[in-house]
Each structure stands twice: as structure tokens, then as C-alpha cells.
Amino acid sequence: MTKDSGQGRQTSCHWKSSEIEFRDLCRALSPLLQESLPDYRDYAIEFRNLCKVLSPLLLELSAPDDPVERVKDNSPSRLEWIRLKRTEGAQSKYLDKLMQMVGLEDAKAFFLRMRAIVQIAKRQKKELSRDDLAIAIVGNPGIGRSIVERLYHRFLSELRAPGYASCYTRDQTHDLKITLNLPDYSDDELQRIMVRIIAGTQWKVEGGPNGKYMWMMVRLVGSARGPGFRNICALKEAWNRALDRQTERIRQEQSEGRHPDCLLLTREDLIGPDPAKAHRESPAWTKLQAMIGMEAVKSSVQLLFDRATWNYHRLQQGSVPLQSSLNRVFLGPPGTGKTTVATLYGQILADLGLLSSAEVVVKNPSDFIAGYIGHSEHRTKKILKETKGKVLIIDDAYMLYSGARAGAHIQPDDFRVAVIDTLVAELDNTPGNDRCVILLGYEEEMQEMFRKSNPGLARRFALADAFHFTNYTVEQLGQILDLKLNNQGLQVTDEARKVAMQMLEKASERPNFGNGGDVENLLSHATEAYGKRAITPMLESPIDVVLEPEDFDLHHRRHLQAAAKCESRFQDLVGVEEIIVQMQEYQKAVASMRRRGVNPRPYIPFTFVFRGPPGTGKTSTARKVGQIFYDMGFLSAAEVIECSVSDLIASYQGQTGKQVVDLLEQALGKVLFIDEAYRLAAGEHEKQAVDELVDGLTKTRYAQKLIVVLAGYNREMVELMQVNRGLRSRFPTDVVFQPLSAGDCWRLLQRELASVDIQIIEESGGVAKVTGAFSRLRKMECWANARDVKRLAGFLVRQIFSRVEDGKDPHITIEEIYQQLELEESKKRVEKTEAVAAAVPREDAEWPKVMSKLVSRFHRDYKQTEKISALEAAVMHAQEIDCHAF
Fold first, then answer.
1. HSE on the CB side for 529, CA within 13 Å?
2. Which residues, if any, are the signal sequence (predicted)?
3. How many helices (H) and strands (E) does the chain have?
4. Which pTM does this prediction carry?
5. Is 516 exposed, middle or buried (0-12, 13-18, 19+ CB in 10 A)?
6. Residues 264 and 136 in one domain
7. Under 8 Å CB-to-CB from 524, ≥6 apart: which residues?
8. Which terminus of the chain is more solvent-facing, meaning fewer CB atoms within 10 Å of its CB: N or C?
């Protein structure tokens, strides 16, 4: 509830004297403003601070001292009030005051109507309730709502309207009978207000207060008319920007020895510089043009200049300029220059006169988010207030949304939600409001934030007008490297630059590649390596710093030794001779192509199908493939990311595709090894994973940027290749792993025992017996090749060391090894018996009981006697019961 307080009446009583003091102050300041620029700037600050304090009274000050009859306008309400004064002798100093003001025609008509209602009620001796007099005053900022409210209270008091003492006004229409809607000022009304404001000062305007340039400034202000248009406030801000431009012009002219008129505002002061001139002379635009790449961004900024030039010509022709919001979204990967361009963008806006300041303020989401309810809103409003007229950059803005990079099922963070809601509420997106906010972030995360947070955010920041930043090409990275070398006064040999480019090319294939940041890191690493390598310390010889290849990559010649190292990398495996030959062929082809200047990448396979029985070295070979392809220069790291099919399948419907893409992202520049890949043929979710994998390997983002290996058993992998037609075309290269031969098994067992210094005592014919046992074992389906050999070796090692006496060397006879192999063979047969018993359905209900007794008997007899005969007897008995089980 708002009442006419004594303080308000006192303000009204002394209003005329306050007006005189204000104008006297303006006249007193005028000669001081002409003395010197420093004094001018100091007094200007004090003068403008005073204007801000008196801003609520600004509209009243714009009213002339002349009687209402001498006001030159065609207001129907003013003319009606003059008629009433002449015919009825009506008097009201508050109506006079209102009628002297520019515009507000609806308010003037409303006051006359309320005067009539009050007078009729008095004649009728009717008591008016406060609800009959209460009004809701609505309208955009700066239209004069507070002044109209103040005049309305005093006007009712003057009329002595019944119930006026408890009358109240609101800026909301809820539960009120009367709503007074104050429309925005027209351009003509803004012009008249501007003329009245200047009339009280000694300011001079090129072309005169009613001239072309003043009209252009007013028309430029009015072009932003719409929801949130700030009317008088916008006009005042435009005038202050004109004074700022005048200050800068005077400073420049005085530095050139000229003597400008400090009270004169020129065309450029009022409406800003000619965009064509700003285009030619803008230092920020020159810097942006010199930046490497960013063609799409440069085109977008060029469109900004073109639009400004077009509006400038429309303004000169008397047409309304077309404006758009200055708020922008910058999308792109890290290190692509978003922050740098945002700074230049703000300076360009200031050069074009679209912002009052070229200052750029960079904030992070943590600057907005507080730990207590209500504090995030307060912080956000404070930052927005402090950056009025400037460029506010919010880096990594996607972190204002709690779901970014955190999964689809995270609960919203109330503190982050509060920041976004406050931004939406405070940023009205009105063109020409002297504000620019730029949101920076990664494209995917930013789009998710816009899609899932406050819908108003997309209206404040149009994604359709976003500036898109892309990863630099290898050639552009080279240009950035050369530029940084030149700026730091560093030299580099041709071979060293070639090595640096190879490292950047490999690094560019990694997820979250830092672009320009990675170039800076590479150069920093090289200079540190030079400092350690140089014989003469850098402090003693700081001039000639020449970087060599080993400064960028200590092992830059690894590709020359790749072929020689290939065989040694497989020395811990047996039975992989054919695979070694296959990898060596790739290495030889790559070396030959590079010597002839041919890019080998399109001709070397990056996807493989590893198929073979268990224990043949598929996983171990995948790890070695990572090192081999890293040595050949195709990978940025020798790392192998091992996963199973379950890692590809998501827990929620529709998330499998994203999970596959996430794995591909994680494996960029590395090896992705999918074990037991035949399980991808199992069901619908697995089929989705296959489809996504096929699609991903087709895209430029992943094609020939990582090694993908599908591993599994022979028959199952062949069946998998038939699930999706595109799968075989994406994985055309098979690496077949053969079962270990009996000789390979024997050599592997010897090597495992020798690794712990166990001596094998050979006997005549012993090797033949052992290899014969291995021959029988390798024919069994449950034989796991190297895996079983290593398990067997582990058992033998434990047995040998448990019985060896102190002071004697550990040893084992070949006969003992043979006996253990026989035991292993018998165990495998029992395993087969148990598997058959569990897998084959039986009509005879007694069958499971019989098999259970056989297995129990085997375990009991073998445990008691530790003789192979007990084991053999149990197996043979099972075979006699049902030979079809085998």
C-alpha cells in the first residue's frame, strides 16, 4: 500500500527550488567543463552521479515552466483541460504539471476522467471506496510510472476525494478494477523530451536540438521499442554514451594540438562512428582477421559490420534501423580461440557504438553459484549490474546445468537452476540495451543445457546465431606453431618441425584435443627439453635457441626401428609366427610409402577380427598391436582400452548408442579391444550396439583414428559377421590364431619353469612322451592352450618349491611332468563328462543321480589314492553307461 506521506508532501513543496538548484548546478558546471580535460572528466563523473540520484525526477524536470496553455503539442487531454479551466474555472497544479509533460496521453485522459468521477460522487453525496480509486499502473521501464503514481496521490488529495487517504496503486493488475496502461514514448515524444533536457544546460548539438542528427539518435533509441523497452532510461543511456564518445574525441583532438569546443556534440558523438570507418580502423577487427582459421567466425563478424552499415544508411534516410540482440553463444572444442574472439567481439561492438564500453569481464560458473539458498540469485544480479555496458563472458557455461557431462538421470542442482533462472529474468533480450553476454562452451553440452533447462534461455541466446568454432586442421596447427615460434624468438630445424607436426597430427586424434593449447604445451615441453639438453645453459646463451627433433620427441626415430622391434615384442608368446610376419609386412609397407612421399594411412587396416581358440594370445597380441601402431606413428598413445560386450550395452532404453560413442571417444588415438565380441549377436540391445559401431567407424571423427579389435572363437566370430552387412565391410581383416602345437606347449612350459630357475631333468624318450601327452590334450575342446600350460606350470612350481630342501636347486624330472600331464588329461575327460551330464537332457530320472555318484566316487577315490587308475575308472564307467554322451 502506498500513501501520500509527509515526506512526499515536503518533496512536493520544495520541488520548484530543487529544480532551480539543479539547473543552476548545470550552469555552474558549464564554464568548468571548458577549462581542461582532466577537470572536465572529474566534474562529468560528479555531474552524472548527481543525475543518477535525481533520475526519478527527470521526467518532471522535462516539463517547461510555461503555463499549460503555452505548451506546443496536440494533446486532446491538454486541450480539454484548457477548456475546463476557461469555462468552469477548474484549477489543479498537479493536472497542470501532468499536462505540461510530454506524452502520457492515457494518463492525462485518466486523470480527467477520475476528476469527473470524484466531482459527480461529491454531488451525489456518494462515498467512494478505496477500491474505486485504486489503480494498477503498468508499462515498460522508464515510462514514468512512479511519477504518475506520485501525481495521482497528490491529485486525489487536492480533489479531497472520499477514500483517497487509503487509496493505493500497484504495478500488478490482480484484484483491481482499474488498470492504467502507459504505452511507450513515440520517437516524436522522445525527441521533445531530449530537447527539453538540453534546454536546461549549455550543451550544443551539431545541427541543433531539432536537427537531423539529434533525430537520428532518438530514432536509434526508438528502434529498440518492444517488450522491456526502457524509454526515458534508454534515452538517458544514449545521451551518456554520446557524452562518452565526446570525451574520447576531445581527448584525441587535444592530443593532436587542436582546441575543440567542449560543449559541442557532433554527429559521431550522437549516433556513433560510421560503420565503414569503424570497419577500416577497428584494431580488434584487424586482430581477428590476422587470427589463423576461423573463417566461419570471421564471416559472422563481417555480417555484423554489414548490418551496422545498412542500419546507418537507413538511419540517415529516416528509416527505422533493424536491431538484434548482442548476446551470443560461442560453441566449439577447447583451444579454438573462443575467449580471445569473444574479447575482440566486445571491442568491435564498442567500435561500432553498440556498447558504451569495450571492457570485457570473464566469469566462470563458480562465480555465480553460491552455497546457500538465495545467494546464487544475489551473485548473478550483482555481476549483471557490474557488467552493464560491458561484455560479460561466461566460460564453460554448460556447467550451469547440473546434467551436463553427468548423465541423464541426475537430480537438478537448485543453486545452478537459480543462476539460469536469474539470467533469464534479468536479460530481457531487448536490442539496444547496452549489454552483451556471451556463453562459451562445448557444443554437445551447451545444446543439452539449452534443451533441458529454462526454456527462456533459448530466447535470450539464439543457438541459430551461435558462432561455431571447429578444430584446427593440421596445416593451421603448423601455422600456429610457426607464429608462436616467431613470437618467442625461437628457431627450429626442418626435421624438428616435421617431428612437431607429426606429434600434433597424432594429438589431434585424441578426444578433447586442446588445439592451440596443445601447440603451446608442445612448445613449452620442447623448450624445457632444450634447456636440459643444451651444453651451455640458456642463461649464458639466450640468443640462439635452435630446437632439435629430440626436443619435441625423444624417441622420434622409433618408426625406423619398428620392424626390428616387432619380433622382440612377441618373444613372450609362442605359436604366433604368422601374426609376426603379418605385422612386419605392415611396417615395411608403411616405411616404403613414407620414403616415397605416400600417405600410408588409407592403405593400412585399422580394424581387425581376432579369432581362434582360447589361450592363443588374442588379448596379448592386441596389447602389442597398440605399441606396433604407435611406433608406426598412427596412434597418439600405445594404450589399449579393453572392454567386454556388457560395457557397450546400457542399462536404459535408448542409451546403448551413446555408450558405444563414449567408448569410441575414449579410445581415439588408442586401441579398443572388445573381447568375446560374438556376444554382440545375442539380442536387440546388442544389435543396436553393432549398428552404432558400424555407423561410428564410417564417420570422419573415428575412421582410421583408432584401432578396433573384435576378438572371439572361430565359429562364433564368423556368425557375428553375418549379423550386420556393414560389419564385415568395416572389419575386413582377420587375424587367425591357431591352437598351440604340442611342441609349442612343451617350449612354453620349459620357459615358464626356467623363469624361476627350475631345472628339468630329462630322460630317454621323455620328451616324446610329454609332447605326445600335449598332442592328446590339444585335441580336447576344453583345452585352453597357453592358458592351461601356464596354469599347469604354476601348479608344478608350487609343488617343486614346497618339497625342495634348503641348499639344493629346484628341479623336476620329465617323468614327473608326464605324470602330471596324464592327470591333466584325465581331469579334462571328467570335465567333459560333467559338462555332458549337465547339458544333455535325460528321460531317465535316475541319470543325474548316477552321474552325481560317479563324480563323487571319482573325487573320493582320487583323493584317497592319488592314482590315475581311480580317475580312469570313473571316466570309463561313465562312458559305459552312455557312450553317446561323448
1. 17
2. none
3. 39, 19
4. 0.62
5. buried
6. no
7. none
8. N
